[in-house]
Amino acid sequence: MIMAVALLLIVLGSVLFHVFNPWWTTPLASNWQLMDDTLTITLVITGIFFVAINVFVAYMLVRFRHREGHRAAHEPENRKLERWLIGGTTVGIMALLAPGLVVYANYVREPHDALVLEVLAQQWQWRFRFPGEDGKLGATDARFVSATNPFGIDPADPPGQDDLLIAANEVHLPLGKPVLVLMRSNDVLHDFFVPNFRARMNTVPGQVSRFWFTPTVAGRYEALCAQLCGVGHPNMRGYVVVEDPANYKSWYAALPTFAKSQAKAPEPPAGAVAAGGGTRVEQGRALADAKGCVACHTIDGSPRVGPTWKGLHGKTETMADGSTALVDEAYLRSFIRDPQARHVKGFPPVMPKIELSDEELAALVAYIQSLGSPPAQAAAEQKAPR
Ligand code: CUA
From ligand 1's centre to the CA of 233, what distance in Å? Predict the structure, then answer.
């Protein structure tokens, strides 16, 4: 009897929780109302079965409870009942699966006029690429991936030359236009997920996955990584800005092409260096963003996966083996070049080796230095209570 009451209470509690819980989905901002409908169908079907089965079990517990003088009859076979159960289960499973298959078929079959957007995932950052004027994405290969060519675009492939590259975690899209999203990964399994669009897909190393959607509400939406991909996973975030076509056009017009990014790379930015620090620090700040350093290193003094960069330069850092080292320019350079050579105490030894040109390394180090304090001052600060 107690068990029967407990079961009924669990059922009642679950139903009430679903009706009154505050954690519903984010407002829909794409054409994928069907995703929500499919989820609702699943919830209703499984909900009905959940209630029916538990009520049935509770009823049986009471109806066939132990009573003196009564004995249960053994009935191993009941053809009629079995047929009903098999038939009912089949219909239920089909009702659960069929709508999903229909929606999925639509989800990966884009309209002809869809805008093509490539999403490139890498621990722990997002990059984006548009096909440019010719409407064709250039061929890519892991062999071509380098500091100056993170997308791995084949330099000899003509369609790749006008590809537009976004080496940051924010992409803009025009309102009301269908977008075909093609996804790649440079390292491990990630998953590009924008909750407001109800759209997501794994990015699998070595293959291109796809889905399409039409943004229907202007706004700035957060894109998440939805596959556990390492310690930086919770910080692997990006943004999709949906705006009216005119604003989108002017943003789009400022994007650099692949050809331009390659032409710029070999020539040293004499101007930037001569301008003295400021520009270089700015460049380092942009790099920290683009290379995903900010996923693990804060600049506000709070440690994350790695040490904060605030006050890092000039500080004396303790290594896992108990030795100490002064964080100066040489330390920063060698640590970024070979992150596995030494391990800082209190932090997991997980920093990935990031491809950087000499110029980029100098800019990044300058940026980290700009957030630190001169050695003398740092030493004095360390004596003071924190
Ligand atoms: Cu990428 Cu989680």
Answer: 4
Does 133 share its domain with 92?
A: no
Residue 59 belongs to domain spanning: 2-64+81-107
d(CA 114, CA 221): 20
Give the ligand 1 atom nearest the CA of 234: 2
Residue pair 326/316 in contact (Cβ under 8 Å)? The answer is yes
Q: Are 93 and 120 in the same domain?
A: no
Q: Do the domain assignments include residue 313?
A: yes
Output the CA angle 214-122-233, nearest 5 degrees.
90
Is residue 75 in a domain?
no
Which residues, judged by CB distance below 6 Å to any ligand atom, belong to the binding site of ligand 1?
A: 121, 124, 190, 225, 227-229, 233, 236
**Nearest to 128, CA basis, from 317, 355, 343, 290:** 290
What is the whole-number distance in angstroms between the Cα of residue 242 and the centre of ligand 1? 23
Per-residue pLDDT at 335: 86
Q: Residue 191's CB: how many other CB atoms inside 10 A? A: 20
pTM, full prediction: 0.69
Average pLDDT, 10 consecutive residues per value, the chain (386 residues): 92 92 87 91 89 93 87 87 93 88 92 93 91 89 84 88 87 94 94 94 94 95 93 89 93 88 57 54 82 79 80 86 87 86 81 82 89 59 49
Ligand 1: nearest atom to the Cα of 229? 2
Distance CA(363)–CA(366), nearest Å, equals 5
